Amino acid sequence: MDTIWLDGAQWLAVLRIGLGLWWLESWRHKDKKTWFQGGGIRWAADIAAKHRWSAVRSGFAVTVTPRPRVMAYVVAYAELALGLGLILGFLTPVALIGGLLLNALYFVLMIHDWAEQGQNSMMGLMSVVGLFGMSWQSWSVDSALGWF
Q: What is the dihedral sign for C-alpha 15, 20, 24, 41?
């Protein structure tokens, strides 16, 4: 593979770190006080209640609605863990798959809102490229430890 400036593994590391920074920004920009009091989950519950797919409505009602505070913490700290894991290249395949799943869940929830789809599509694409390109080969804790 011919590249300019960096080699292929390093360019994949740049992509991985950029995706990690995007996840970190998702965590950073949240109004934590409102979010942890369930504000984000109430917003999502309103969207899920009106969703065109009954599986989304019932799945959200069974899984998320009964525990809004716990789910608020799960979402926020998953974003933080994904961001740090990808930036540092620590458990990178796990972080890439976890991020892909989180993006897919949000993508399905917001399927009717096309304005929200671009970010999730791009983050999902970056996760797939990072995973199959083995983006942990360069500039990562995984590489330093000889993992994966």
A: positive
